[in-house]
Design a protein that fits this description.
By secondary structure, the chain is an alpha+beta fold. 17% of the residues lie in helices and 46% in strands. Strand 2 and strand 3 form a beta hairpin.
């Protein structure tokens, strides 16, 4: 049901974070959204590892929001149902995103934000 998990760091200064993860650590930006202009989110590959970095405009929205985990599932809605049945707190119901993925947000037992998403359909 689940097939990939990676962390997403929230930062108030995406340019500064890229200076560290891309320029100093030698990471490669493999994705950015939006594609044109200043990104609000980037994916960085370092060796076999993957890291998301997102611009955080509202740092106090959640009590524990500096690091988020993103987990891909084959079916976001079915995965969310399984987690809900297991007693997991759902903080955002599934929503289709502008980049084509469907995502929901839950909290792990320690209150860490976990985004559950299904990939965009192949074009």
């Amino acid at each position: 049901m689940f097939d990939e998990l990676f962390p997403i760091l929230s930062t108030p200064d995406l340019t500064r974070a890229l200076g560290f993860y891309r320029d100093l650590l030698g990471g490669t930006v493999t994705y950015q959204f939006p594609l044109d202009g200043d990104p609000g989110y980037v994916a960085v590959q370092i060796g076999g590892s993957h890291l998301g970095i997102g611009q955080q405009d509202q740092p106090d929205v959640l009590a524990n929001d500096r690091v988020t985990l993103w987990v891909y599932a084959q079916d976001c809605d079915a995965a969310l149902g399984r987690l809900r049945d297991g007693g997991v707190e759902v903080v955002q119901e599934p929503v289709d995103q502008p980049w084509g993925e469907r995502m929901a947000t839950v909290l792990d037992p320690d209150g860490n934000r976990v985004i559950v998403a299904s990939r965009a359909a192949a074009q």
